[in-house]
Amino acid sequence: MGRMLKALSERALELGPVRDAEQTGNWRAATDDDYVYWLVLDRPGKSVNTIDRSVIEELSHHVDQIIDQRPSAVVIRSAKPSGFAAGADIQQFAGASTGEIRGMLKEAHLVLDRLAKVKAKTIAVIHGHCLGAGLELALACDRRIAVADASLGFPEVMLGLHPGLGGTYRSTAIADPVEAMTMMLTGKSMPAKKAKSIGLVDAVVEERHVASAVQAALYNDLPTASRSLKGHAFSVKPARSLAAKQMRKSAAAKAPQEHYPAPYRLIDLWEAHGGDAKAMQEGEIDSFAELIETDTAQNLVRVFFLRETMRGLKEGASGIRHVHVVGAGAMGGDIAAWAAREGFSVTLGDVATAPIGKAIRAAQKMLKATLKDPLKVRDALDRLVPDPMGYGIGRADIVIEAAPEKIELKRKIYAEIEPQLKEGALLATNTSALPLADLAAGLADPSRLVGLHFFNPVSRMQLIEIVSHDAISSETARRATAFAAELSRLPAPVTSAPGFLVNRSLTPYMAEALIMVDEGIPKERIDACAERFGMPMGPVELTDQVGLDIALDVSASLRERLDTAFPDSPGWLQTMVDEGKLGRKTGAGLYAYDEDGEPQKQRLDGLPDGSKDDPDMLDRLILPMLNAVVACLREGVVESEHVADGAMIFGTGFAPFRGGPIHYAKQRGVDEIVARMNELADKHGPRFAPDEGWQRLKS
């Protein structure tokens, strides 16, 4: 069956004479009747091509053959339906010294330089994902033909790096240099049509027209992307310096240089040597080799593999095609819309029709923003069906309850739903803190109940906590985990415990911030302190984002159900909730909010001179969070340190360049953290007492 599926998928791709060629290593090669040498990358046993040392070494042998055979042209493409190539295999650099990495890069550059200089016309045909080193390979060719579904990008900045295989100078020489720099600095991918508009590719065609496009390129009937006036303008250093200044300003707003050096290295490189390919090549190799040794790159590479670890928790398919969501509030509506976006048939129910209409309108906005293609938006909306009568319950493979956090209400919903469920259907709850054992108490078949804790906003937060309980079946847990992955989300298996993992760990961080506000420390200073550490949002603003009412409820729940000391919420917080000041959603909370929902913060330099930072501020915020993660590991709420780190990064935005809370703790030193927490406990109270799990972490 696998061989048949592979053959069928290849039939959709124009592979010329290579379709019948024998596989030798990572490449397949054959020459057609027009004496065009087709070279197809098809890494054995992999669904996605990556570029590693073996791929480059074999490419070198093919370049030798091309030089010897002198074909009329060379076509380079991929046989993988997923795309051209997903970038470099970053594992090849693990454990290598700076000198060894520099040597590997120089060898690879020599091969691509030789490819760029062959006398035959070289044509890269790009479909699907063409990223990082894959795009750098395509840029070494004379022409680039993109299939309409292609997506091109340089994601290296996400790993604390910049392109290292010629991308820095080839992209800025071939395409609009400012657009090329923006691609590299943001790591965002670009659709084929946009890539053509900036000169990165020469033509965009449908797959069925690839052979004709190759012929047109062969006979010079394919127009080439000409270098823009911008390209000529930025060939002089003063113009580059002006642009570089703006680039540094934009980079600083998102990635401080002390934590993320790669964007600034890239800007410096282009400003100094833009237009001088040789100088940029040498600078690129040196800079890449040095960056990969930095803590930032090492930790971001770790985060990359944490993501892969969590994706790898999927075992088999979920078997879920139809999703029914009960509750069309903010979370339920977003869950339904995202499932429809990801290809599932979705019905959305609620006790009232108004919330369903509001959810559909919000879905349209989200789908337009994330899909961008009107046809894809239309198709997703066609899959999202309003269902106020709940007709979809009986047809659904999974019913997701997203009702308010009240046990009796949820139990009442389950009593109505369960008799309607078809055999094999799962029942999921999006509860953020309620015990699943309590929710399952009235079910005839509690084995099919599972927690699917999504995070807000669903369209941006990558994590789903898969919450188990004593009565869940292993098949329910397996299918729920697979379903999360099929939603393009990262599953984090946890057991039902107060706050699960993420809320249990995040709430002390937010609670301590409120205590500091109560002490008179300006909230802007508190948020700035956390943001300097690397958090995407300060804890005061985060509390407003979550909602003061929800934050109060979660804190009360944890205080009641945890054995550890948990701080009391300030009395004024309840007063604010009673007055309807709930945070961002009401336009007023700890901060006031403008029409765009942005908090109105005072400038730090405009705060009263007498308001000084608490010298313990950062540790008071961060260490209780780490302490809670350690407690969750000790209690078995989460089994793996890797999953714990990944869940906190992808569920809370914990500073990615620090590699996760447990990794950060180990790098800083467990003994130092325990000693520091004891100091804080003496000064501020027992809420800082270190969990006994720290001792296990040392072993």
From TrEMBL:
Record-annotated 3-hydroxyacyl-CoA dehydrogenase C-terminal domain positions: 499-593
One of the protein's GO biological processes: fatty acid beta-oxidation
Enzyme class: lyase
Domain 3-hydroxyacyl-CoA dehydrogenase NAD binding: start-end pairs: 322-494
Recorded metabolic or biological pathway in which this protein acts: Lipid metabolism; fatty acid beta-oxidation
Recorded family membership: In the N-terminal section; belongs to the enoyl-CoA hydratase/isomerase family. In the central section; belongs to the 3-hydroxyacyl-CoA dehydrogenase family.
Official protein name in the record: enoyl-CoA hydratase
